[in-house]
Each structure stands twice: as structure tokens, then as C-alpha cells.
Amino acid sequence: MKKYITLMFFAVLGYIVGAAAFQTPVAAYVGAISAPMLANMVQMPAFTLNTGLGKVTMKALQEQRAQLGRDLEAIIKTAEDESRELSEDEEGKFDLKRSEITALDKKIDRQKTLDEERSRMAANTGIPLGESEAKELRNSAKKYSFTKALRTASDRNSKLDGLELEFHEEAMAEFQRSGASGGSDPSSVLISQKILESVEMRDMTATGGTGGDQGGLTIQTSVMGYIEALRARSVLLRNGADLMTGVQGNFTMSKENSLYAPAWEGENDPAAESSPTYTKVTFSPKRLGGFIDVSKQLLLQSSESIENRLRNQINVGQALAIDRGGIQGTGANDQPTGIVFDSAVNVIAIGTNGGPITDAILLALEEALENADGAFGNIAFMTTPKVKKFLKLLKLDDGSGMFAWDRLTNTVNGYASEASNQIPKTLTKGTADGVCHAALLGNFSGSAFAQWGGLEILVDPYTQSINNMTRMVVNQYADFHVLQGGMISVVKDITVA
Length: 497
What we know:
Distance between the termini: 78 Å
Number of helices: 14
Radius of gyration: 32 Å
Structural class: alpha+beta
Shape: elongated
Helix content: 40-55%
Number of strands: 17
Strand content: 15-25%
Largest sheet: 8 strands, mixed
């Protein structure tokens, strides 16, 4: 295609030059015919139009590199099988293939640098992938096999290849850019942020155990990408908390402690000083780790249902843990400081030893937001399931038939509400030891999560080998901070009989 475009270009160029130089139709036609012939004879590229048809991808280069490696192995194997040295012809082919590999390795290095630079620019500028690139990524993510990558890593005699190797290397580059410490263990499988952000729909055959505990009884399953699972499971993200992915190193964000407040003054009076004050919070990668044991027999399965089960199990577990850190992280032992323990939020106290929640406490939560100029935007209420039940039975008065938690609109004091086991229910206040529940009201866009790189899964085939199990240790690097404490109110000494 490029050749034809080049010849057409020279034809037009020859026509223009011939007409301009000799100002005759004959000269123009001669130029149109001779120019592309000359360009073709001397193989002169001169001018190339990028049609997008010859786009080089890392996957294509790696596949070409793998094929050349197999060709080399085939040449050597033929001679070894016949118990002889390489023939002159075979030596020539071997040297040629080796030189092609050397040249291809340079191309792969250049392409890797180019891909990393594109990813870095996209992360820094927020420029999304083009439509064709996004489509190619979605198609590749659908073909990526989580179980194949884990199975390969558990066998020390096997190496990742294909898409699994491509996304592993992409994830390694993401970890290196992020500054997090993950990604260095050679026995690990790295899951790229691109895979985590993908959403898949897989068609399956109903197979597996009769109870469906081996992935069976499902014909079609939507496999949420990690980010989608995080948003679906996270109480905070569902209600407006920000999620920053692809971040690099430690970084700071400002917390505004007081607003700029101008005052009315006389015409010639000096303006009163009113400067907003700021403090800074530093986001730094904190390791969120856990492990699951999977039977080796399960990893040998190629069933799509097994693939989906493993993915969703890890996705949901990580999502819940990150959300829990944002709500009730203590700030100690390498935990982030969650909303419940953040000193910047509005705290409403019930009593010395806690007490039952009342309509007056609900109104106080709202009043605290208004006093802090934080009562704007999408405000939501959240608490534990037990407090929700209590509020559904709490009458606002004796005659209206209205309850604190409206059963028809699912609202509390007019605000969208939900219950979650992510909200702590084992807090202590005075003599109420380990039995206090919390409730939160606010615009949670005043808080943010940050995530460095993708997932790191260390595959350990030895610890549980006596039980024929493979242990998978999952590591992720994230952090959380409240950025605008006045936008969130908390009560954390609710007792429920």
C-alpha cells in the first residue's frame, strides 16, 4: 500500500514539474510517467505517508523474536539428533537468524522505550488512549489468561510467553515508574493496570461441581475489571471519593483549613488581611497484602469459570480491603488514616459511654457540615446494618408514622443512605468496650485514594505443597487521605441493644 501511495505521489509530482518546466501537456505526461519509474528503479523512499497499516506493536515484535528463537533451536536439534556438527549451510542459516535476533532485540528495546514514554505521557497529561488502541487493548485483555500466568509461574521450568509475558512486562514498567517496591521478585506474576481496568464478558459451558463451587452452572459471566470491582464494592467510591491511578512516587496535596474571606471596608480604608491557610498531606505507597491457597488441580483447569472465579475472588477481596482502609484505617502499622480516625473531620459525640443514635444526633451531623461550609454536592449517609435496622424502627414522632430511615426512599434525613459491614462496629467509648458502631454523613469527594501500579502476585508452590496447594501472595500499593475534613461528619459511639 505504501509503495502504491509513493508511486502515485511521484506521478503527480512529475506531472507538476514537467508542466511547470516546459509548460506543455506532453512534458507533463512524460514527467508523470517517468518520475515514479525512476523512484522505483532507485528504490528511493523519498516521501512516505503513514497510513497506519504498518503499525509496530510490542506483541508482534515479541512473537517474531520467539519464532526466530525456535528456528535456532530447530537448527541445533537437527544436528544433535543426527549426532553431527552443523553443516556449512546450517551455520550460515544459524548466523543469519542470530543477526536477525540481534537487530530485533534493538527494535524491541526501542519499542519498549516508546511504549513506556507514551504510557508516562498519558498518565501525566490524562490523555486517554485512541479509539483503535483502546479497542486493541480490550481485545487483548479478553485473551489474557490469569490462570495460565499463575500456572506458568508455579512451574519453575516454564516461562511466561505471549500476552501474559507482554502484560507482565508492561506491569513491571508501571511498577518501576510508580516508585513502589513491588515487581522485583522473579517468581511473581505482575498484573498490569491495563488489565485491572478492563471489563470482560465471557461465554462459558456449564461445567464443574454440582454445587457450582468449581466454577460450574454458569453460562455467561461478566468479569469486572479490578477498577470496576473496586467501585462496585467500595462504599466510599460509590459515594464520590476520588481514585487516582498510575501515580508515581510520593506526592503531596493541599488541605484548605480556612477560606479566603474578604470584608466590606470604607472607600479609603485599608483592606483587611484574609489569607486562606493550607496544610499538606503526603500520599505514599502502602503495601496491602494477603494470600489465598489454590489447589494445583484447579490451576490445571482451562475452564473459563475457574478463570473468572479466581479473578473475581482477588478483585473483590482487594477492593473491600482498600475501602476498609479508607473508612477505618488507624494510621498505625502502615495503614492509611481512614475517615473514622481522621482528626480533620467533624466528630459528633453521643456521651461519655456512648449511647443510642437519635434524630437529634442525625440533625447534629448535618449541622456540623453546614457550620464547616461542607454541606454541598452529593451528600450520603452510611452506617452498619445493625444501626440501619435500629433507624428503621426509630419513630420520628408518635403520629406521622415516619421513621428515621425511610423505607420507601431509603433515605435518612433526606439523604441517600446505605448500610455496609465496612463501617466499624467494634469501637470503644468509655465503658462501652468494643461494641460501638459508627455512622458517616458527608460529601465524600472530599477524600481520595491513590494506587501505584497494578497487582503483584507471588506464586509459592512449596509452602502448601504437602496439601497439593499453591499459595498466591497478593500485593498492591495504595493510600488514602481526607482532603476536606469539613465535608464529612462522623459519630463513632453508637450503641445498639
